[in-house]
Amino acid sequence: SSSHIGSGVSSLGGLRRRGIMLAAVARRVVPRAVFGFVAAAETSGSALLTGAASGHAAEQVRWTTRQVNSTSLLQQYYRRMPVRKKYRRAITRGTMVMCEKTGQVKIPPIAVAGYDEKTNPYRGRWEDLRSPRVWLKD
Question: How far from 107 is each of 67, 99, 103, CA to CA, in Å?
Fold first, then answer.
């Protein structure tokens, strides 16, 4: 026995409070499908978890990197390209193209307002282009 009233294991209220705390912790940690098993274990006086209730990791799957569905042949082709991820993404979007001759990633053939493709073609970078109208050439 202890000097404090209602403390520790000596009082019946302390046992009841600990049982309620254990139930609250079990509700947070254990999945809902298993909670019925935990409630049955609590009512029988046993707080031990066995079988499927012992670990919730068997039921959870976190952050799968790929989708479960099949990948198209075009996506497989793009994924195997020997270029950096940002350029691969630009190629799949169509904002850049891969040159068959050199293997470089380039801006697709575009027509720019204010520039003539034969006499005065635009030779700068895409980021530096300030023309109000740009369209893809066919």
Answer: 30, 9, 13
* Spatial distance between the Cα atoms of 99 and 87, rounded to a whole number of angstroms: 13
∠ CA 19-24-26, nearest 5°, is: 95
Q: What are phi and psi of 82, to 5 degrees?
A: -85, 50
Q: Is 67 helix (H, G, I), strand (E, B) or coil?
A: coil
Q: The whole model's pTM is what? A: 0.40
- H helix or E strand, kind and range, residue 111: strand 110-112
Query: SS3 of 134, please?
Result: strand
Q: Token pair of 118, please?
A: 């034969």
Give 97's strand partners: 106
3 state SS of 76: helix
List per-residue pLDDT tens for the chain, 138 residues long: 445 555 555 555 666 666 676 777 666 666 655 555 545 555 555 545 455 555 555 666 676 666 678 889 999 999 999 999 999 999 999 889 999 899 999 988 889 999 998 999 888 888 899 999 999 887
